[in-house]
Amino acid sequence: MKDKIILTGDRPTGRLHIGHYVGSLKGRVELQNAMDYKDMFVFIADAQALTDNFDNPEKVRQNIIEVALDYLSVGLDPGKITIFIQSMIPELTELAFYYMNLVTVARLQRNPTVKTEIAMRGFSKENSEEQQVFGSGLPVGFFTYPISQAADITAFKATTVPTGEDQKPMIEQTVEIVRKFNSIYGETLVEPDILLPSNNACHRLPGIDGKAKMSKSLGNCIYLSEPADTLAKKVMSMYTDPLHISINDPGHLEGNTVFTYLDAFCRQEHFGMFLPEYPNLDELKAHYQRGGLGDVKIKKFLGKILEQELAPIRERRKEFEKDIPEVYNMLRKGSERAREVAARTMDDVRKAMKINYFEDKALIASQAEKYRQQQ
Asked: Which of 14, 96, 186, 227 has most Cβ atoms within 10 angstroms of its Cβ?
């Protein structure tokens, strides 16, 4: 058993989609089953979701179970790892509060992920960088969520964070906080490393409409629990090459969502099963590029691949849906265990910051002696 501690999670703002699956979920299951770690934590980030859903807590509340079911259906096993709910660990909030003293406003403004998320959620319509950050309607909690994320990671002394490429700036900011804390208070916290999917196509899967990222808010997702008929319709509606008007026209791969998905999901054996006239994906791409291959045929091929991948996930989800109270019980037990771990880290932090007043017997004794001598 190695000393690797893995931590990752998702916001409960809706069901999880195949972008989550190839970007992180599938890798989490592989890590879990490899057992090449000391500990592994996967959490539902409800407190973070409330930073931009503060006026709709019921949405977050209802989606806790949706995310938990998705976790279980892809194969995450609470018997091997700890699955918990973020808000059930108050130590995370305390830790984030202390970290706020270690990060400047200017540094948060420069975080690319924060700026992108602010723009996506329409918090500000202003143009300047300063106005984008301090625009109308931006909650402070949302602005500072990189600090909260740093607390999530460091509370469990995570060494490895499996996530998508869009989260790299967040991990970099966590490392900065760890280094700043350790330089001031002594070696206490652990620097995390990001773990990206090995397949580049999985780093940031585009939406079915060809947008830069699959997003629940943009409505361009294929969900893990998608019914077979809905999945087929979504695949057939996917954005391809607008210049590929007729079958004989040469096709372009760049920006073609169908081929991006094939890069992410297609395996060699799929050709023997679903498209035997082609030996591999390179040959399929070459035919499309020279012309003579229609988009419908490629979409049908992709649809069969995705259905093969998602059908077992869909069926497992139905089984877990039969006992929802037990899913909540699993989350409760995981949260209790996670809090025990976070509390130990919090003890280390308070000791390093010299705010462990009641546990510091030497402090109490020295103060007592000082005032005894004054009498």
From this structure: 96
CA distance 331 to 68: 8
Nearest-Å Rg of the Cα atoms of the chain is: 24
The alpha carbon dihedral of 23, 26, 32, 34 has a sign of: negative
Bridge partners of residue 5, in order along the sequence: 39
Paired strand residues for 195? 162
Give the tokens for residue 297.
């045929």
Q: What is the extent of the structural domain holding 249?
A: 228-319
Spatial neighbors of 197 by CB under 8 A, at least 6 apart, are 22, 23, 24, 26, 27, 164, 203
Nearest to 297 by CA among 282, 280, 284, 310: 284
What count of residues does the chain have?
Answer: 375
**Do residues 192 and 307 share a domain?**
no
Span 297-302, mean pLDDT? 97
Q: What does the alpha-carbon distance between residue 345 and residue 150 come to, in Å, rounded to a whole number?
A: 13
pTM score: 0.89
Residue 111 sits in a domain whose CATH number is 3.40.50.620
